[in-house]
Amino acid sequence: MNSPIRVFIVDDSAVVRQVLTGLLERDPGIRVIGSAADPLFAQQKMAAGWPDVIVLDVEMPRMDGITFLKKLMAERPTPVVICSTLTEQGAETTVAALQAGAVAIIAKPRLGLGGFLHDTAQEFVQAIKAAARARMAPLLRQPAALPAAPAALARTTDQVVAIGTSTGGTLALEAVLGALPAVCPGIVVVQHMPEKFTAAFAARLDRLCRCEVREAKNGDRVRPGRVLIAPGGRHMQLKRSGAQYHVEVLDGPPVNRHKPSVDVLFRSVARSAGRNAMGIIMTGMGDDGANGLLEMRQAGAVTAAQDEASCVVFGMPKEAIARGAAQLVLPLGEIAATILHGHRPHRP
To answer: What is the arrangement of strands in the sheet containing 160-165, beginning at the earlier edge strand?
Structure first.
């Protein structure tokens, strides 16, 4: 029998530490080995027994979570799950934590933990288990950006690229989108992320990338040079109107436990774009997107999955490959070039 996942909680609220400890220890596969009110106390306690996963708040006394995270990644890389308050300011800080090397976000309410316990318990446990399996090397080794492509691309303007990703995807998306020039195919993205965090994530990518990156709004047009990221807590579908594509942002039940769901996006791209699309599934836990990517391939799209060596969690790509959905298996560093220049493999 496998040993339980050892978790250490760092949060300045004693109530939060108690609640999270009780929530996690309901699962026999998880053991909370300790907790601390700030990173300095945490370092002292963890020296006696290092955890497999650290749960970290970002706003704490003496040393903030971002500073601690950067120090941790430089000295002793360890999977970190950020547990952050649902506020606009907190969202920006939390996204900065993801870019510093955290593997996942769990949103906690600013007031009251009752709803958190009821609604988020399973998601929190799954995030801890995904983090325990995370491979830290891809997070710490990002590929260099590609040189700018010529303004006139070989692809037509009605091409659509759909990307789905989850755990480890924030840095993977930064690597891919940051390597693209200002003129690139229109891109639609589902990154599993809680509500309120996707706007801050999109804004950060927009500052870093040459193409335009924004959180999608209902009716936004998909056009060259624009990347639309599905808002947390809402599904996103691709629709076609004449020769143009736009997105529909809508509510609905979770699909494969996620909202937004990669499968929802990919299936809509298969219906609306067919051979004019490319589908790419990247690092993440579970199987969301595998069936949708298969539908895209069956509709004539070029399909690709990120390879195991460059994934933080080789779950979603592995499932897509196993189901025959991915024509190409690519290292992270080759995905941007494939988006730009395209590749249609010979069908078996």
So the answer is: 212-215, 226-229, 186-191, 160-165, 277-281, 302-306, 328-330
Residue 38 lies in a domain: yes
Write the pLDDT tens digit of every residue in 94-117: 788 888 889 988 877 655 566 556
Name the residues annotated as catalytic. Answer: 166, 192, 288
Q: In this structure, is residue 153 part of a structural domain?
A: no
CA–CA gap between residue 89 and residue 87 (Å, rounded): 5
Q: What is the CATH number of the domain that holds 193?
A: 3.40.50.180
325, 189: one domain: yes
Burial classification of residue 340, based on how many CB atoms lie within 10 Å of its CB (0-12 exposed, 13-18 middle, 19 or more buried): buried
Pairing of strands 186-191, 160-165: parallel
Rounded CA-CA distance 207/92 in Å is: 13
- b/e string for 5-42 if b means 16 or more Cβ within 10 A? bbbbbbbbeeebbebbeebbeebeebebbbbbbbbebb
Domain that holds residue 245: 160-341
In terms of domains, do 169 and 81 share one?
no
pLDDT digits (tens, 9 = 90+) for 191-225: 999 888 899 999 999 999 999 999 999 999 999 99
Q: Is residue 145 part of a domain?
A: no
Strand partners, 241: 244
Where in the chain does DSSP place strands (E)? 5-10, 30-36, 53-56, 80-85, 104-108, 160-165, 186-191, 212-215, 221-222, 226-229, 235-241, 244-250, 277-281, 302-306, 328-330
146 within some domain:
no
d(CA 164, CA 306): 11
Contact 210, 182 (CB under 8 A): yes
Length of the chain in terms of residues written? 348
